[in-house]
Write a structure and sequence with these properties.
By secondary structure, the chain is an alpha/beta fold. It is built from eight helices and seven strands, in the order βαβαβαβαβαβαααβ. Bound molecules: nicotinamide-adenine-dinucleotide. Nicotinamide-adenine-dinucleotide binds next to α1, α4 and α6.
């Protein structure tokens, strides 16, 4: 029931942070994975080859830029060309920028909407015909607690993540009778490079220590006052991807230490 062995998965933005951890979790469980994301080609190849040799499962990389619709569609097709099918799509790539709405750089707004929301649409658009043909498929968007709640100064990110939640529900209704599901995981704070940068910046901006910034500002929203761990996200992803998750559809599932209970 909880098997993903030999499943074929694409995880966007999997050269770092949550995406890399989810990709590794899938490979560990025996899935064949297409990695994607930006970074130094040598470092990416080292990661890819390392995962493949450590777990004895084929791992590929596709360098699609999440700003480029054609490249995104090609990445989805690449998974099918390489492995003959596509069981799981995880639109995960994302960026952040924090600024008051009246000062929010227009280019940053456009990039955040494009990478955090529109790239998921392009990937899903390309994946759905394959999954419908197979009469089985799973789409698991990595949204955020910010897909369910707002915070000040994150207008683009919150708008994009609320958009991902809406996209998730809509696609779920369209694919429901085809053996395909579409859900979103909504993590609270996870200690990735994206968040680590914010600790120092927040401490500096407020004139407080990094410890204070972490506890009283960054993790203030999260009742557990602890970061969400990678394996906790992987566990939910594998559940949703496996046969056990077949009836979970259109859900936006919070893993946030109680943040959105408030
Ligand atoms: P990260 O910065 O560690 O990783 C982001 C990944 O996206 C990288 O692999 C990067 O190369 C890739 N990426 C960025 N722009 C790209 C582009 N144009 N084309 C292709 N790939 C691109 O960040 P993370 O914290 O691991 O975030 C991953 C996802 O999880 C994001 O969608 C983020 O919004 C979401 N999320 C993160 C947290 C958190 O606390 N870290 C919480 C909730 C949701």
């Amino acid at each position: 029931m909880f098997e993903v062995k030999d499943h074929v998965a694409v995880v966007t933005g999997s050269t770092s942070g949550i995406g890399l951890a989810l990709a590794e979790g899938l490979v560990r469980a025996g899935a064949k994975v297409v990695l994607n994301g930006l970074g130094d080609p040598k470092a990416i190849e080292k990661t890819r080859a390392g995962l493949e040799s450590k777990h004895g499962v084929p791992v590929r990389y596709h360098g699609a830029d999440m700003l480029e619709p054609d490249q995104i569609a090609d990445m989805v097709g690449f998974a099918e060309r390489e492995f003959g099918r596509l069981d799981l799509l995880v639109p995960n790539a994302g960026i952040q920028h924090v600024a008051p709405v009246e000062e929010f750089p227009i280019a940053k707004w456009n990039a955040i909407l494009a990478i955090n929301l529109t790239s998921a649409f392009h990937a899903i658009r390309a994946a759905v015909p394959i999954m419908k043909r197979q009469k089985r498929g799973r789409i698991v968007n990595i949204a955020s607690a910010h897909g369910l709640r707002a915070s000040p100064f994150k207008s683009a990110y919150v708008a994009a993540k609320h958009g991902v939640v809406g996209l998730t529900k809509t696609v779920a209704l369209e694919v429901a009778e085809h053996g395909v599901t579409c859900n979103a995981i909504c993590p609270g704070y996870v200690k990735t490079p994206l968040v680590e940068g914010q600790i120092a910046d927040t401490a500096k901006a407020r004139g407080i220590s990094e410890e204070e910034a972490l506890k009283n500002v960054i993790l203030a929203a999260q009742p557990t006052k602890k970061f969400v761990e990678y394996d906790e996200l992987t566990g939910l992803l594998i559940y949703l991807a496996s046969d056990a998750g077949a009836s979970v559809n259109g859900a936006s599932l919070a893993i946030d230490g109680g943040w959105t209970a408030k």
